[in-house]
Amino acid sequence: MRNLEKVPEVIQKSKCMNHIIDYKWNEKIMLGLLDPFEGNDELDNILNKIGHKAAIGLTASLLEWIYWYFKDYTTMSDDIRHRIESLWYSVENPENTKPLLFDAELDIPASGFINGPIWIALMNVRIIDILYKKRSFMLQSELVGLVLLVRHVAPKRKKFDKWFEGTISKLVGQFPNQNPEVPFSEDAVYDSSGEALICREFFFEPMFNNCNEATKSALNDFILNIDYEANPFCSKNKKFING
Asked: Which phi and psi (to 5°) does residue 74 adopt?
């Protein structure tokens, strides 16, 4: 249970913890987040400049914003934490994780101020996980809805914007898309085998020394602290690619 024990400072400063639910929520907003691409070309373009491992790390980090915001409002907090752990495990080796399934009947809770945003987040994450394991070029675009969702619920939106803008700038420079010249196609295969690893500290610790050894150590430490008996999405048979 050592993972996600400490709230990242940026999330604390954004007042996400124990904040009242004061954002707007209705069916129109929910549908807009489910199909967010119209009018968000700039965000889509910038997300497509980062690599797949970076995109999965960003997904895990965005889901962590959701985790801390709703932790005291829902009984699903452990389930959300398990999915975050699975995403980081997938950065090391996606074969070590199981599908992030939920809500097989697609019973959308459109009217719920808590269940609605959580449903949107988990649906986005499920699709991202599928596309990552399929090595699809469509993966980065699926982050658009998750970014917009976190921004919508964040109590201090400017704090989130500053974090996201700084993070995406670093990602584009240090973890660029490795296959930018391949024509967009649902059947095209993205090769992330040569991409550098990334860890949680990159997103939430401004003084983190982002070098290969420090990243590998931090990521592996996170993975080794997963409770494999409790987490249904992580395989107990760890097969480390990077040692």
From this structure: -140, 150
